Amino acid sequence: MENQRLYAYGKLLLTSEYFVLDGAEALAIPTRFGQSLQVTDSQYDTLHWKSFDADSTLWFEGTFDFIHFNVLTSSDSSVAQMLSKILKTAKKLKTQTSSLYFPSKGIAIETHLTFPRYWGLGTSSTLIYNIAQLFQVNPYDLLKDTFGGSGYDIACAGAHSAIVYSVKEGNNNIKAVEFNPEFKENLYFIYLDKKQNSREGIALYREKAQKLPPQYFEAFSILTQTMLNVTDLGIFEKLIIEHEKLVASIIELPRAKSLYFNDYWGEIKSLGAWGGDFVMATSDRDFYTTKQYFTGKGFHTIIPFEEMIL
């Protein structure tokens, strides 16, 4: 466990949001942005934890006893309790498989994000993945016993390319794919600055999507494969519209384009839980013109495809 540096990639879910929970195939992509976890020796007999944002601001600090990972001190009690739960769960999973090595002294851990933590690119999933690597336990088991979710974000954390991801019969199915469309210079990611709680989004989906017939999930799997292989921007935009309308018809929420960009010339697709974080925009106009439109609407984080995607 001593003197290690781990790294996990962030994530974006391009297709099958929500429906990936119930077996639909989803196209997911790891981002260039992520989170590191650095472990060093400490002269104290505790675990001293520091978490830094992308601008090097210390946003959390706490100490935990080194045997049970109970909170001793913290700058934020809710964050400390969740971190304590993750560490305790990781230890429990480890002891179920083999003995857990502890150094004779305590350790210090620092985490560093390379994206602002409110962006929704995977602050939690990259943490879960790194802690799982630290304890050498299954990251999907750790996710299941802490935050929950489909696990696509965990798959992205350790991926080196786009993936098609699904959960079927309790198994996490991951297929590495190439998503390098000919029209990639026409794709942008726009931050809405409206943080969305994924668990609330999932709860809404569960409420609205009870007893859906299998063809709905098959439809999203087909859309995933089609969007992955399309070579024409116009067809890609039509697929976005089809995908958005299908999701909207089930969860009964308005499209992001209808809410914020109803006069936009391209298409807008929500990514992950609807209502916040990033959307993907298509544009057949130059970057300056496209950026000018979004900044004029009050959205100032516009990232071209190649600057976002790993």
Describe this structure in words.
The chain is of the alpha+beta class and 310 residues long. The chain is built from 10 helices and 12 strands. It has helices spanning 77-95, 123-135, 139-144, 152-157, 198-208, 214-229, 233-251, 256-260, 287-296, 305-308, and strands spanning 4-13, 26-41, 46-52, 58-65, 71-74, 107-113, 162-168, 171-177, 187-191, 268-270, 278-282, 302-304. Strands 1, 2, 3, 4, 5, 6, 7 and 8 form an 8-stranded mixed beta sheet that branches. It has a 4-stranded antiparallel beta sheet with strand order 10-11-9-12. Helix 1 (77-95) runs parallel beside helix 2 and helix 6 runs antiparallel to helix 7. The two termini are 28 Å apart. The model has no long low-confidence stretch (mean pLDDT 91).
Main β-sheet, in a few words?
A: 8 strands, mixed
Task: State the helix count.
Answer: 10
Work out the helicity level.
25-40%
Count of distinct strands:
12
Give the oligomer, counting copies of the same chain as homo and different chains as hetero.
single chain
Give the percentage of residues in beta strands: 25-35%
Run of helices and strands = EEEEEHEHHHEEEHHHHEEHEH
The parts where pLDDT drops under 50 for at least 5 residues are: none
Shape: globular
Question: What is the arithmetic mean of pLDDT?
Answer: 91
User: Over all CA atoms, what is the radius of gyration?
Assistant: 20 Å
Q: Distance between the terminal alpha carbons, to the nearest Å?
A: 28 Å
Q: Structural class, please?
A: alpha+beta
